[in-house]
Structure formats: C-alpha cells, structure tokens
Write a structure and sequence with these properties.
The chain has 190 residues and is mainly alpha-helical. It contains 9 helices and no strands. The chain has 2 domains: 83 residues, no CATH class; 94 residues, Winged helix-like DNA-binding domain superfamily/Winged helix DNA-binding domain (Arc Repressor Mutant, subunit A), CATH 1.10.10.10.
Length: 190
C-alpha cells in the first residue's frame, strides 16, 4: 500500500473518533474539528515516521490535544489583553475618496496594484519590493509607472480636478479643494 493510500485509510478510520474525543474535551465542535485537522496535517507531513509508530492514532490524539490546549491558551491571553487594554481604537472611517481609490486599485493588474500598495501605502522601497516579489528593480519601477498612469486615468474626473464620482451625486459635486486633490495626485505624479 502506498503512503497516500495508507494515510487516507488511516484518516478515514480515525478522524471521527479523534474529533469525538476532542469535542468531549473542549465542548466545542468547531474547535475539535479544527484541532483534529491540524493534527492530521502534522501527521501527513511526517507520515513516513508516524506510520512506523505502534499507535499512530495515539500520536495524532496527543498532537490534537496539544493543539486544542495551545488554541485555548492563545484565546485566554487575547481575552486578558482585551480586558487590560480595551478594544483597539477604530481606524478612520472610509470616505468616498478612499472607496474610489480602492475601487480603482481593484481594476489594476495584480502586479501593478501590489507594487503601488507596497510602495505608497506600505512604505517599501523599490529594492525591497523587488526582493519580495523576486523580480528586478526595473520591473518594479515599470509596474509603478504603469500603475500610476492607469490609476490617474481611473481617478481623474472629466473636469481634471480629482476623483471621478459615480452615482447620482456626481454632477452636483463641486471640484475638491486643492489640498484634497493633491492628496490623491501623489500616486499619479510620483
């Protein structure tokens, strides 16, 4: 029997009992299923060694138990931190211009979008982005340039003053003041 077939048979014959044990232990079916899945994933990655054990099911049960305990400890620590520090402060509310920027970014090819977001919003240098993506610096500069050009076309209204608005309010909207327009032109002019 191949390793794949042996593991598949082992999984089919033991998964339900492992979940049942964890469910009895945790009292939460979802936690039990997730802990069991994690344990079986770990067993699969070490299957050649685990298959040689006298009781591979015991190994999976032990790992699943430890995963469940670890998840419980992380949740307990997070709850204690929440009680100590309170909820995180809310971020800025999305405004129409942010929504338009995100909508325009979604229309760009993934490589250009990633380069623009990492560079302008994430603060990464061209060299850092090139290293992250595994491409040459010139490729990143090209993606930034093409992405800025495409983004400028998507964000510039017919009157040339900023974000093109969609919907019924577009004709009634006055051109943004210079500070608001400049905020978004950074991407288009850099």
């Amino acid at each position: 029997m191949t390793d794949d077939a042996a593991f598949a048979e082992f999984y089919r014959s033991t998964y339900r009992s492992v979940v049942a044990q964890l469910y009895a232990y945790t009292g939460d079916l979802t936690e039990a299923q997730e802990s069991a899945q994690e344990a079986f994933i770990r067993a699969w990655t070490r299957w050649q060694k685990v298959a040689e054990y006298d009781e591979p099911r015991a190994w999976v049960c032990r790992v699943a138990y430890r995963v469940a305990v670890s998840r419980w400890r992380r949740a307990k620590t997070a709850a204690a931190s929440w009680r100590r520090h309170g909820p995180p402060s809310p971020g800025p509310e999305p405004d129409g211009m942010n929504a338009d920027l995100v909508a325009a970014l979604r229309q760009l090819p993934e490589a250009q979008r990633r380069a623009l977001v990492l560079h302008y919003l994430g603060g990464f240098s061209v060299a850092e982005i090139a290293s992250l993506d595994g491409v040459a610096s010139g490729t990143v500069r090209s993606r930034l340039s093409r992405g800025r050009d495409a983004l400028a076309g998507l964000l510039t209204s017919e009157d040339g003053y900023g974000v093109a608005r969609r919907g019924p309010s577009a004709p009634d909207r006055a051109p943004p003041d210079r500070a608001e327009a400049t905020r978004w032109e950074v991407c288009a002019s850099a």
